[in-house]
Specification:
Strand 1 (44-45) and strand 2 (48-49) form a beta hairpin. Helix 3 (80-112) crosses helix 5 (155-161). The protein is globular. The chain has 195 residues and is mainly α. The protein has helices at residues 25-43, 66-78, 80-112, 141-151, 155-161, 173-182; strands at 44-45, 48-49, 132-136, 168-172, 184-185, 190-191. The protein has six helices and six strands, in the order H-E-E-H-H-E-H-H-E-H-E-E. 48% of the residues lie in helices and 9% in strands. The longest helix has 33 residues, at 80-112.
């Protein structure tokens, strides 16, 4: 009997090594990015933001429209134990989903600012994802983070919601810290290096 080699269900290329998923890593990554972009586009319609409960357009101050929000507030006021019980019952699942969403958003931002390639430092080409971060090219990162903290949003999510504005790049923590503290990167040995 002839043994058939496993192929990706999306691009139909054979797997290089034994693989537990139906799609190759590249197709899975593209699928996650597409799904994340679709979700953000769904939230922004021509009529404005959409309520997360009834899916009707609203003013955009909250995730839900005023009608749904008032119903939720009334229910929570009348049944304070229900919220806590549900959260405690689903806590691990919620934390896991939240962590996955943050990681996907971060990976999507780092990939975008690496010109769609594997995320890497623009200075030293470090590719270890744990060491990479976003750098404000023209400075002002501290003030920007303070504004975002007041609004309760992460910098990576802010970049996605604002359609990846210009003026940002991917650097490793070492290069970013050196530029912030000393004004130059040791890899170039030139003050105020411009990438």
């Amino acid at each position: 009997m002839k043994m058939t080699e496993r192929v990706c269900s999306n691009c139909h290329k054979p797997f290089d090594e034994p693989h537990e998923f139906k799609q190759c890593d590249r197709c899975r990554k593209i699928g996650r990015e597409t799904k994340l972009k679709w979700w953000h586009e769904k939230r922004r319609t021509a009529a404005g933001p959409v309520c997360s409960i009834c899916l009707k357009p609203h003013d955009g101050k909250y995730k839900t429209c005023e009608r749904c929000l008032s119903y939720k507030r009334k229910f929570r006021k009348e049944h304070p134990e229900a919220d806590n019980e549900w959260y405690l019952a689903h806590r691990d699942e919620l934390l896991k989903k939240s962590k996955e969403y943050r990681e996907q958003t971060r990976l999507m931002v780092l990939t975008h600012y690496s010109n769609g390639e594997t995320p890497r430092c623009a200075c030293c080409n470090e590719q270890n994802i744990e060491f990479l971060c976003i750098d404000h090219i023209n400075g002002g990162g501290r003030q920007h983070r303070k504004q975002l903290i007041k609004s309760g949003i992460t910098p990576y999510l802010w970049l996605v919601r604002n359609d990846f504005p210009e003026g940002y790049r991917v650097l490793c923590w070492n290069c970013n810290s050196s530029l912030g503290l000393y004004g130059y990167c040791p890899h170039d040995k030139v003050p105020n290096c411009d990438f």
